[in-house]
Design a protein that fits this description.
The chain has a two-stranded antiparallel ribbon with strand order 1-2. It is mainly α. Helices cover 75% and strands 3% of the residues. Strand 1 (79-81) and strand 2 form a beta hairpin. The chain has 5 helices and 2 strands. Helix 2 (25-73) packs antiparallel against helix 4. 9% of the residues are buried. The longest helix has 49 residues, at 25-73.
Length: 175
């Protein structure tokens, strides 16, 4: 049995109505500026993180290539002579340790994505801290926004409770 919960569109519409009705123009402007600032910090963090990730991938791959080249140019024995006099050809490790294109792609992809994720999180944290400072300057704004948030949560919970009381069944058809 599937119970009806407000969809993201319902929540967005409800939030937008509350936002327009319960906040003044100056409050909306402050919140929009805070959202814009947070987006800017997150975007800058992503770009810096991606750059640092790709730079570190470049350094790792270059280091691996230098090690491979140094090992590959060294003189290596061609045969191994055992104590019983038996002679066998020495197999080379160069085919196994040779850097591959797949390794390059994997390194750049993984470190780039990890750098992007770390940068996004760091940007979000720094943006949050910056917004916290600017929003706490006006204590009345903080109270009004918290009150609006509590009223919005209460309204959403009421809608969910109404849906549960009606026991709306949204079962998927068994095609």
């Amino acid at each position: 049995m599937f119970i009806f919960y407000p969809t993201s569109q319902d929540l967005k519409l409800l939030t937008e109505q509350r936002y327009q009705r319960d906040l003044s123009d100056s409050d909306r402007e402050v919140l929009e500026n805070a959202a814009r600032k947070l987006r800017t910090y997150v975007t800058a963090g992503k770009i810096l993180g991606l750059g640092l990730g790709l730079f570190s991938a470049f350094r790792i791959r270059r280091s691996k290539m230098q090690k491979y080249t140094a090992f590959h140019t060294q003189e290596k024995p061609l045969h191994v002579v055992f104590a019983d006099g038996r002679i066998e050809a020495a197999s080379g490790l160069s085919t196994v340790s040779k850097p591959s294109k797949f390794g390059h792609v994997a390194t750049y992809t993984l470190l780039g994505l990890c750098g992007c994720a770390i940068g996004r999180d760091a940007g979000g944290f720094l943006g949050h801290m910056s917004n916290r400072k600017s929003l706490n300057q006006d204590p009345n704004l903080k109270v009004r926004v918290e009150e609006l948030h509590q009223q919005l949560r209460a309204e959403i919970l009421r809608k969910e409770a109404d849906a549960l009381d009606k026991k709306q069944d949204l079962r998927l058809s068994e095609d």
